[in-house]
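Per your request, structure below.
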């Protein structure tokens, strides 16, 4: 597993208060009970801080599932 993905899993788990083993590429607001609009903002903020990357709010809104989040950060860090 790559480092960006593993880091995203750790941050996601902490912010959403879910076990790391329950996080899949298809994890999204419809199947993660704690993922509401506030949690989404907190997640994006925590990932920005973790990776030292500033995200345009429009880009952050478009990150609709875990796979999209990982892909986004991988593209920013390569």
């Amino acid at each position: 597993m790559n480092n960006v993905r593993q880091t995203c899993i750790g941050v996601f788990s902490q912010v959403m208060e879910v076990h790391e083993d329950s996080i899949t590429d298809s994890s999204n607001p419809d199947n993660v009970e704690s993922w509401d609009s506030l949690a989404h903002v907190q997640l994006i903020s925590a990932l920005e801080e973790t990776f030292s990357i500033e995200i345009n709010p429009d880009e952050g809104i478009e990150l609709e599932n875990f796979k999209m989040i990982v892909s986004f950060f991988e593209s920013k860090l390569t």
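Residues 32-78 form one domain.

Regards,
D.
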